[in-house]
Write a structure and sequence with these properties.
Elements lengths: L21 H16 L12 E6 L5 H12 L3 E5 L13 H8 L5 E6 L4 H8 L4 E6 L5 H15 L6 E5 L6 H10 L6 E5 L8 H9 L5 E4 L2 H4 L5 E4 L10 H7 L7 H4 L7 E3 L20 H20 L6
Parallel strand pairs: 1-2, 1-3, 3-4, 5-6, 5-8, 6-7, 8-9
Helix pairs in contact: 1-11, 2-11, 3-4, 5-6, 5-11
Bound molecules: phosphoric acid mono(formamide)ester.
């Protein structure tokens, strides 16, 4: 018999990880596990339902995995990946756009260049809104993807030592990930970045220090590599830099290659939200510890679970 999806998630929006309790989040992972085992059971469960994808910034994984998720649940998808093909180009506000979209769709996924954009939309919306990434702020469904992957590969989150490496300042996936993982017992973070790309003060103060989470901030990946259970690599976010010179100076500061992987545990896993640029050499793709493409696939399954939960669709018996 399928597990019960918490009814508390029905009609909710997901703007940042703390919008869902630990129990609700774990229930989504349980459902995603069931979907992975028997996807055919879910192939018509969202028949007659419509998902809108509003992408004001480029995306491959987030948009396609949401669209694939809805289509694999038997639902349908509308939306744009280029806002200038919509009335946004005529100056329509985000609030008016979402109030229009809710006339047609049952839930909306929004990626926006402005921090807080999806939150603003959710305040005007009568349908659930999912934040698919807002500027350099948060990316909660990437975190669901990352966490499901860790749960599958490592069996859970308690007492794990996680290294986050790269652009921790602008990397929204890192901010949401730290926020979500800080709710588990015994999690420790090594934050590996250059001075200019250190974790923002609000994450340090309001998440790590406030919750007494052990963390260290280091410059060299090699110094912490042997202690890590999970290494989360991130891209230096060119689109968030104010000047190109700074980006060029910092872009290749960390490159994970086979030589560096030799310094890691045999059971460490490497995550990356993707896209990558240079920060992981392609030779690492062949290492069984590199799970970033599995991670991208898990993103579709956890988004299937999320769509079902927000629409209040029951798990088939
Ligand atoms: N991980 C991620 O958000 O990828 P996209 O930008 O391709 O959606």
């Amino acid at each position: 018999m399928g597990m019960t999806i918490p009814t508390s998630l029905k009609g909710k929006s997901l703007i940042e990880p703390s919008d869902f309790s630990v129990e609700e989040t774990e229930a989504l992972f349980d459902l995603a596990d069931e979907i992975i085992k028997a996807p055919e059971k879910y192939s018509e469960i969202c028949k007659g339902r419509l998902l809108a994808t509003l992408f004001y910034e480029p995306s491959t994984r987030t948009r396609f995995s949401f669209e694939a998720a809805m289509l694999r649940l038997g639902g349908q998808v509308i939306g744009f990946s280029e806002p200038n093909t919509s009335s946004v180009a005529k100056g329509e506000s985000l609030s008016d756009t979402i109030r229009t979209i809710e006339c047609y769709a049952d839930l909306a996924v929004i990626r926006h260049h402005k921090e807080g954009g999806p939150k603003v939309a959710s305040l005007s919306a009568g349908i659930p809104v999912i934040n698919a990434g807002d500027g350099g702020h948060q990316h909660p469904t990437q975190t669901l993807t990352d966490m499901l992957t860790i749960r599958i590969e490592k069996g859970g989150f308690e007492n794990i030592n996680i290294g986050l490496c790269g652009d921790l300042k602008f990397g929204r996936t890192a901010h949401s990930f730290i926020k979500a993982l800080s709710r588990y017992r015994g999690v420790k973070f090594a934050l590996i970045s250059p001075e200019e790309l250190m974790i923002p003060e609000y994450v340090r103060k309001e998440v790590l220090l406030k919750n007494d989470i052990p963390f260290m901030e280091v410059r060299r990946l090699q110094d912490v590599m042997p202690d890590l259970d999970v290494l989360y690599m991130t891209r230096v976010q060119r689109e968030r830099f104010f000047n190109e010179e700074d980006y060029i100076r910092l872009k290749d500061i960390y490159i994970l290659d086979a030589e560096k992987m030799r310094g890691a545990r045999s059971d460490m896993i490497v995550l990356h939200p993707l896209p990558r640029v240079n920060e992981i050499a392609e030779e690492v793709d062949h290492d069984p510890r590199a799970v970033y493409f599995k991670q991208a696939k898990n993103g579709m399954y956890v988004r299937m679970a999320l769509i079902m939960a927000l629409l209040g669709i029951e798990n088939p018996r």
